[in-house]
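Reply to dn_fold:

You asked what the input looked like. This is it:
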Amino acid sequence: MLYYALVFFIVAIIAGVLGFGGIAGASAGIAQILFFLFLAFLVISLIMSVIRKA
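and this is what came back:
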C-alpha cells in the first residue's frame, strides 16, 4: 500500500511539473489517502502485536 502511495505521489509531481493540475491534484489526493490508510494499518498492527504478547 505504501508502494502505491509513492507511485501516485510521483505521478502527481510529474503531472504538476508538466502543467496537468487536475491530474496532479487527484493523484496527490489518492496518495494522501493511501498513506494515511497505511499509517492506520501500521498502528493497528503494532497494537495487536502488543496485545498478543501480553
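Residues 2-53 form one domain.
Hope that clears it up.
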